[in-house]
Amino acid sequence: MSRLHVPVERHRLDNGLKIVLSPDRSVPVVAVNLWYGVGSRNEAPGKTGFAHLFEHMMFQGSAHVPKNKHFELIERVGGTLNATTWFDRTNYFDTVPSHHLELALWLESDRMGWMLPAMDQAKLDNQRDVVKNEKLQRYDNQPYGDWDERMQAMLFPPDHPYHHTVIGSMEDIDAATLDDVARFFRSFYVPSNAVLTIAGDIDRADALALVQRYFGEIAPGGALPPLPGKTSLDPTLGRTVRDHVVSDVPLPRVIMAFRTPPYSSDDFLVAEVSRALLGMGRASRLYRRLVRERRIAKSVVAYVYPLLSGASMILAWATGYPGTELEALEAALSEEIEGLVGAEQAEVDRAIALAETDLVHTLERVSSRADLLSMFDLYFDDPARLNRELDRLRSVTVDQIRSFASERLGPDNRAVLTYQPKTTG
Amino acid sequence: MSAFDRDAPPGPGPIRHFDFPPVERRTLSNGLDLRVARMPRLPVASVRLFMRAGEGGLGAARAGLAVLTADSLDGGTKRRGGTELAEALERIGARLDASSGWEGTSADLYCLADRLPEALGLLAESVCEPGFPAEEVDRAREQHLAGLRQRVMDPGALASDVALTRYFAQGVPYARVLDGSVESVTPLGREDLLGYADANFRPGTGGLIVVGDVDGREVATLAEKWLGSWKGTPASKDDFLVTPAATERRVLVVDRPGSVQSEVRVGHVGVECATPDYYALSVANLVLGGVFTSRLNLNLRERNGFTYGIRSGFSFRTRPGPFEISTSVGNEQTAPAVREILAELSLFAEEGPTDEEVAAARDFAAGIFGLQLETSSQIASRVTQLVVFGLPDDYFHGYRDNVRGVTTEAAAEAARRHMRPGQAQIVVVGDAEQIAGPLEALGLGPFDVLSGPPRTSHG
What is the pLDDT of residue A229? Predict the structure, then answer.
């Protein structure tokens, strides 16, 4: 049985734009959420970081909306807005009081249809500086800030689209041109490569009419360019690969990752539940054993990346104390991860119970509902999967987790990244 | 080409008002202030048990004790160990987390509504009968100390922590890191936590807030069952005065050799939550640095590309918390960024916002207030604020009218009174070799360079 039922209504405009409507009139808030099927995986060599830079350019105005006007108008009505870029997609979202739905649709449609006339070199130069500062702030000036670059390079070969990070390289960001902006826009920012979800306080017929009015005349796009590089991969790494860093970090840390089946595979569910057994809640394996009982780790984290192309990854981090030996920490972490071959039903039950609470918590916000519906539509052509998500998790058996651990979480599929604090005088 | 005019933004549809949900108040037999708001939208319950036992009531020698005590509640109870407690909660999908701030300690629970009877019992057991097993306390203390170590090596946290010591006089609790110092935390052990919890984890002057798909009477019965025999009032008293560390503008660079960016903080002592200028000042701050389209962000990010973002804000606490502008900027842009920040702050304090800016900020604040009443946790947090700051029950009912009532003159006056560029303390964590010269050349005031993080929070 499922306690959840989020209404889902699907439509498709003639230009290919997919629409998901999810009415909930209990609070006068509406979320407008757009997922475009483009991310860092679509970046050609020499263009790393461009999908994210492009996302910034989407806020620099469009034919009928001056620079910064999008922020100004949404903030004026008390709304919130932002966007994020990830490996497989880029999302844009506005949450507004429901009587301002039309404003959000006008803004989003204008940049989907009429962005390029507003682009100029000064805007590109400005946002390039902003993005470079974002990279400095979030990665280069942070302890452990290069971990994802190092980890992706170990898990994915150089010709794989997940080999490079979403933020990309400074050199590539520097090299971006207005021509790149135009080409990227025409290739990827087309109605047929997007999902528009509207969740919250709407009348379905009115909302659909507004969508038709604002998005209907945008020209459909052509076929998407193929992904650069090669996405097919061996299911495992075939060995243990490692990288060791001595740097200005406060505490020793071990980050361990394993290739998993991609998010599009049913087997990915097993990875999701396995990670919950490792790192969800304070009764989970890593917290109980490494933090509470052995006191070898100050903190632990485990998570999965929901990636589509060829393979995805499951990761676990253990951060030690000032004197912790990395070898001991790594051995302890491996032991718990491999220990999943002895997974038990009681811990699976706890993980499912927490997952249910967390999902309901997420669904309290219409903006989160909209984001999930867009994702399930873009990735799986199935937004209603949201209502089956818990049942899918419940279908995972202890035996599947045990097999997953023995097939996927051993030394023949392990990437290990260790950080050793630099000793200074 | 368009079938209609795309040039102008469409106007609003008919407005639907968003009112704060009714809150039922009851007093339990032990005096505990119970407040319940019914939100039947989803089958969840969001609970806050607030106790007036915060870091503000501790002297420097005991700094961090409230935080460590709250953190150690997950170590177990008199009846079960830490893992057993976690298993009992997680079996029913309940999330329980306790934390301390300046004003008090809060145990927060989130669960499906039909699990509330059991989950509330576990919350009560963990707060009223904490076990504090020695090995769990030792673990929590070592985690806490390692966390302090991480703060010193994180440039952003370091800048924020050092800045507090430049805003507030030594001895004022707000000059400290909330978590305390290595010196104050290291000696803490099981007996300290038992003593602190026994004296301070008490229901008097606190509150129990429950929001969600719940019935007020049923919650009262449950609370009486689990918490009714819990008695007393916290011994903690936070009757300190807030004084500034300096009244002249000063600049401090904390050297972080090799830093590729500078963390910048500009601020001074702000104002208390109960200030009559609360609304006017909140609106003024939105214009200066509270939203994306603020003066500071449009200048430093969108015009100059110095930063990924910049914000300003007042921490409204029982007593005056900090007013602070914070950002991070590239090395070469450090001095120009600080110059622009001071220029914007000075101009704003002197001339105040324009009518148009005030109108936009009022609309933002009034609009987003409704958007932030969507979830049970958001409502629970708001009701908790009523308890913490002793605000009237109908406080949030009048919130939007109060915001909309702010005039340009009132916002300008509040900015003039509470933003003081002449007394601003400027703290920059970065590579001194690259940034100190140009910063000193700005001539903003007495200039110091610290050759690395201060050894304690009062460096």
Answer: 95
